[in-house]
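Please produce the structure of this protein holding magnesium ion.
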Amino acid sequence: MGERELSESVINLKGIGEKTGKLFNKCGVYTCRDLIYYFPRTYDEFKAPVHASELVEGEVCAATLTIVGSIMKRRVRNLSIISFEAVDYTGKIKMTYFNAPYLASSLKSGTTHVFRGVVRKKGNFFTFDQPKMYKPSEYDTLCGKLMPRYPLVKSLSNNTVTKAVQNAFKNAGRFDEFVPEDIIKRLGLMSYFDAIYNIHFPKNSAILEQARRRLAYNEFFLFILKLRLLKKIQEENKNTFPMMEVAEAKRFLEKLPYKLTNAQLNSYNDILSDISGRYVMNRLIQGDVGSGKTVVAFLALLTAAANGYQGAIMAPTEVLAAQHFEGFKEMIDKYGLTSLKPVLLTGALSAKDKREAQRMIKEGEVNCIIGTNALIQEKVEYKNLALVVTDEQHRFGVRQREALAGKGENVHVLAMSATPIPRTLAIILYGDLHISIIDELPGGRIPIKNCVVGTDYRNTAYKFICDQVKEGHQAYIICPMVEEGELDGVENVTDYTDKLKSVFPSDISVAMLHGKMKPSMKDEIMEAFARKDIDVLVSTTVIEVGINVPNATVMMIENAERFGLSQLHQLRGRVGRGNAQSYCIFLNTSKSDDAKKRLDIMNKSNDGFKIAEEDLKQRGPGELFGLRQSGELNFRIGDIYHDSDLLKEASVDADRILSEDPELSDTQYNVLRSTLNTKSANFVDFTTL
Ligand code: ADP
Ligand code: MG
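Below is the modeled complex.
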């Protein structure tokens, strides 16, 4: 490929100086290669103009309209405002522009333009704020085109990125194919270069889909090859920390007030047979939210401790780490588990406490280390680490997991995830040996009752929450934002909390939680909520992962339409964790039918697997990038559900190639070999490996 040109800094591109270069750096883009792999987040489709009567509130629409009446110009403080009306034979629309005096000359009563923008409704009136204006003939040529929309940072415009990408392509030569020719032919894949080009600038959605498929195949093919090669290495690693089942774990299970589900027991037995076996353990435990993964991890850590080793569990947030620590301590005390000596190590600790924790870890005074990625910092030395557990592992990068595992030699690895992947796909991705699936919920759980409602239901919901609190329960309310932002009509935790304090009687205690708070503050709030000192917690999605307060029975999600379904499912998983009936209220503030349809899926099902599949069926190709869900396997382009056929092909291809040539030593695999060896994350985001 045009290697040399692509390695050049983006600053060498026309129109990019030091300052813009820095903005690109913020996006992780340094070289021209980075730039052409900087894929659009979504596309703007220039749809055919509709009639004034067909405009849909909240959506981007175009309409061919004729300006009528006079053009009004006003000034409000330092803002100049132009407003006027435009019509077609079906209706009238009001237009407003701010600080756009240059428009004044082209706006004349009687002239016809295509106006395109977000439709709003004021009273009975449709309005356009700042719509883009086109000559009808100009719009004709744009119609049907997909324009890339890139992820941006402040001061970096979509236009700048688009131009830069175009310029980068001018210098790019051809790319060497690493996928064997016969596979490209058999699957009718687009060439690698064309695929990269068309992911930025597709002529239409059919071409976009072809480009997407090609890149998805690339990701799957490399991912699976890497995985198979990695697994081979791991399987050859002898078990240097053989462990036996311990009496303490058996006693603990007998004393527990509940029985483990069969699925939990099977997972535990899988772990026991791994750690007592010939090879080092590398197991994934997959179970829907609330299926009870923590106790399985706890059993593994207890086993390691009682066998004389250290074990560590890494959680993605401080709040979750602190919760695990508290929960573990409680079980240790309650069931007299004397061999477990826990310690918490997170970034939130004071420097002094951190040093003390590190000392205890190094000297082996503690053997169950619970924390965040503070566990993997260089300063932390372990005495005899033999087991590492990653909770909510899809939240970590492979490097983080490897770094934790690298703190000991050939340590056993247990990864836990609530990612709902159907078993058939999981087997392709992980192989059938190393995955345990917890596919049943603990008995006695009452299914969550759901409802999707509009804003007019809010007061009823507040009343309902009050009633639940009076019965001794607690509630979560989720808002998308931390504080007031640019987005209209999107609730934020800060203002919402203030509002609720005046809505609810004063004996109901309301508090807020969000990611921008100091870690120690977050811990304090979560602990207070767990102690029931807080009745209603208004939070951002920081509570999405892992939080367990079984007494909470109501979850209300504001602007529910703004979240992905899998994310909603994870959020909802915070309730329904105890024996009481729980409720989830999805507040839909959008008027669009699609939003309603999507949320209805949540209404109908509590099953994470089903939701993930349904979600997919409803997505159009243009949306595939925008709706990256948390908790799914994060390929950049490929989608394991949508592209499951390609995933299967890639799996068969990878296995065939490796069985014929395990080292990939044939010259036809030269490019493939070097591609696999590059650290470049251009192809696969290995977050989930
Ligand atoms: P997750 O799989 O989402 O991490 P947790 O491990 O947090 O779920 O468990 C959720 C709740 O279920 C906890 O309160 C836990 O004590 C409880 N739990 C776990 N296993 C069982 C079981 N077999 N029977 C009853 N309750 C259980
Ligand atoms: Mg959990």
